[in-house]
């Protein structure tokens, strides 16, 4: 049978071996070669065809039967798929010089020796070492070297607890930020991570995005992120999915992350067959069309090649990529574990497994790349260990007044009530809102939305970048904010008036997030870490949405300074209030934040600040104070819902005048305050319930008999003492709208008793204990409200219970 090729190029002489094949492949297009191979696989009946068949089998074995496997055919981009084929399927492409092999061996020696050092020094301690995947260290260094050569000069990393990475990458004296010399100086930042695996993923992405933003790195050409994962956690933790889904959103993308999965083929003690439903632990990455490179971790050269390709992919396409290091864990879940209990056959094989350093050193010695003497000298070098140092305290602890000039207030108010672009048609409903704002400004007043505008706008004037993120934040969950205006006749035409306030102002970023709390809050936390001179806010759609971000709150925000000596100024806006709308979305769970609150007299010493503002002016003040303080603390704000449009929840421009500041406590201003000796009862409260109490007091004409004092910052012992003494003969009451086992009761009880030194009773008024945050029945809600209002204002026979 005679063979004649009639395709786009003539048939070359058949090769006798795989080594000859690239000679003609290099002259033809890659796509032609693949078709050429397919044709000759089917035409191997002749002698020439049989020779081609042997060559093709060798090609297939080289490309598809080695230590690298790639998943990429699901990617719906022909150019990207073709790029991967060129890098992986082209025969003979994986080549290393002797110098590169020697560098790889040196890095592998360093990785192995540090693990040996830890095993000897702390033989009876858990250390979650790299034994079985020592190649991780050379792999990471290869990624960084390749990325650095492409222009990257800053890398932010996140990882599970792997001490080997800490030492081999970052000297312990500067574990969070150092310069490492490659071809040029490159900054490495390793984010602190709790034992909650994968929780650090969005935090790393947020910090990376912030550094890109502040450096003007719009394409991620200077700053990038690397995330390390465990196989079981990568498959099992939902925050991995949430983080991937942020990867290509305009306000959250970091233009490609390199994910390295340390796949030791067991998660804790669970076999993969009962730990996940997918074939591979990396399948979650397919949702964003990220290529997945599976590579045998016992083949260091294959690992290094895959790392080079992954770094080049990220540089070329600015998209995520996953490296699956298929390895093992020599000592089970940790060094104190007995893996034979649960994986006996696997660990019989592991105990017979030759160490990767031995394999690779023998290979290079056999090739003549290194001598036995050189290798023996290199494994006998000594190690040094440095120690962590702490940050110092700020020079000042006081905050300057947070008031504003009248001119500034009017200018911001006018911008907030207008459209800065010509020929821009807005919705009639938005027009009514803007006209209402203009009327408020004319009368020197502000509602909640306008008070927020004053806070953000004034900080922008002072050069402070403001970023507000969360679900529906552009419009506002309750349609009160409207920081982004949309043209009703031109698609994708929108306007952000806040960015048109001043010449040379700082930028304002307001961005609706994906329907994620865990991932997005972690992202914003990371963003806030990048710059102390920026106001970063995350708003929950409803206050109780922070439930699904509790890991970030518990592991990063609350204990961040205590665990890692790292201050952070993130602001959480949590809509809260019992409005009769049912158990969902009523309570932001203030009891949780107060329970975790480490409170002392000085703000600097607490772990976070908890406030429940009842006026727009006080909200504006506390937001401005967050930046003007000489140190950074997380700020938890229970924001209102019904008060957004409440006619009494207004502030005058006088409340924001020059020299004014945040009021931690708002005293009573009714006739009762003019004659304190005649006051029969003082009601302390916080938040929205004040307006219901004030309304009921007025209805019962008790404004001379009952004083109502609002705690805006919870808790403030000193001001409370002052007012307990002022109303020395009055009964003291704590009133809350939340159920007794929720809200503020358990927190304020011992503090009130301390204030009054147990000399006077302090009575509780509020809802009875319950399992749910609120009733689902509107009439029951109203009956509960009436009952505790009657109790609060019944002066003849008190029906409450003592604190």
Automatic annotation (TrEMBL):
GO molecular function, one term: oxoglutarate dehydrogenase (succinyl-transferring) activity
Residue span(s) of domain Transketolase-like pyrimidine-binding: 446-646
Source superkingdom: Eukaryota
EC annotation from Swiss-Prot or TrEMBL: 1.2.4.2
Ranges annotated as spanning the membrane: none
Keywords: Glycolysis, Magnesium, Metal-binding, Mitochondrion, Oxidoreductase, Thiamine pyrophosphate, Transit peptide
Annotated localization: Mitochondrion
Cofactor(s) this protein requires: thiamine diphosphate; Mg(2+)
EC class name: oxidoreductase
Pfam families in the cross-refs: E1_dh, OxoGdeHyase_C, Transket_pyr
InterPro entries recorded: 2oxoglutarate_DH_E1, DH_E1, KGD_C_sf, ODO-1/KGD_C, THDP-binding, Transketolase-like_Pyr-bd
GO biological process, one term: tricarboxylic acid cycle
GO CC, alphabetical: mitochondrion; oxoglutarate dehydrogenase complex
Major subcellular location class: mitochondrion
NCBIfam families found in the cross-reference section: PRK09404.1 (NF006914)
Similarity comment text for this entry: Belongs to the alpha-ketoglutarate dehydrogenase family.
Protein name as annotated: oxoglutarate dehydrogenase (succinyl-transferring)
Naturally occurring in which organism (per UniProt): Sparus aurata
